[in-house]
Amino acid sequence: MGFSAASVTVTNSTINNCMTLGYGGAIYANAEASVTVTNSTISSCTASYYGGGICGYTKASVTVTDSTISNCIAFTGGGIIGFKEASVTVTNSTISSCIASGPGGGISGYDE
Fold first, then answer.
1. 41 three-state secondary structure
2. pLDDT tens-digit readout, 15-64
């Protein structure tokens, strides 16, 4: 039996004031999942580890278009992180006022 990877689409939406003690304060994509964010705002989200706004992990695909990610905080990748072979594409978008105590206040590409 085969399994299909998850697919999440966020369009014309706002995600704010979210928090996780793990990865992806607003959105977490793992294991070949596909996440598309279009014409949306992600703001004031926090992750204790990776991706205050969005975390793409282990071959996940993350696409952000015509969107804003702001005021997000994480240890690594304050706005967005692509981690362990994840693919991240950001087009015509704004990433601002994001903070990381490690690498990548705005965006981080990282592999252990």
1. strand
2. 999 999 999 999 999 988 999 999 999 999 999 999 999 999 999 999 99
Distance CA 57, CA 100 (A): 17
CA 66 distance to own-chain centroid: 15
Task: Give the whole-angstrom CA distance, residue 23 versus residue 14.
Answer: 19
The DSSP code for 105 is S
Which residues fall within 8 angstroms of residue 19, CB to CB, at 6 or more apart? 25, 45, 46, 47
Query: What are the respective helix, strand and coil percentages of the chain, to the nearest 5?
Result: 0, 50, 50
Q: Which residue has the tokens 């299909």?
A: 4
